[in-house]
Predict the structure.
Amino acid sequence: MSAKITFIGAGNMASSLAGGIIAKGYDPTQITMTDLNEDILLSNRTKLGVNTTRDNIQACSHADVIVLAVKPQVMGDVVAPLHTIVEQRSPLIVSIAAGITLANLEAWLGKSAPLVRCMPNTPALVQSGATGLFANTNVSDQQRDLAKQILSAVGLALWVENEDQIDAVTAVSGSGPAYFLLVMEAMMNAGRDLGLPDDVASQLTLQTALGSAQLAITSDVNVAELRRRVTSPAGTTERAINIMQDKGLEEIFAAALKGAYDRSKELAS
């Protein structure tokens, strides 16, 4: 990958993406980051060795890829001035902003703009992210490869079949870290109530979560079968699982994810 990449917005997610591709051998001098906050720019310039500026037009004038990493509420004001550059040069536009649809981006940047909408999650900050991507028809095969390479630098990156599925991605993996963290929090509290010291309950819970995910990722069977293998008849695990199911855990998760999906659609409307 030798494309010139500009990040509009240099916050945590943009810094993680830039750091991820640099860690995989990408030349940091091919990356430019913009932000209104000079301290953030200085930090990225010092830590990553990238170019920085507060001038979005200058930063995008020779870019092959423009990653939009600003807050959704200011996206229109930030990207509309780039319309002429995008129209003339057709750089790949990658948006990581929640609730900003391709129709929004086309209204600001033009119908011919090559656009990828994606939803990374916060574990991308530690190179363990999960991202869903969707491209409009203007995106070339080479540009699709570029988009996936950038997002894959911080974890798993998967294409979805239609834009509506980005809302499902938001519900599953975009918001998903909070669900698992809530479960971890509940387990730590329960362990403490059962007499474990806080640090012991915390370390056991976190390592169990990590180990369970790694087991599921590396196994050749699905998670339902793995759970069955851990659940001995009439044992401690079966007792706990039965209580969770009797209290409607699966129904709670189904309703919760549907709520997140519906809210994602509301934010995009």
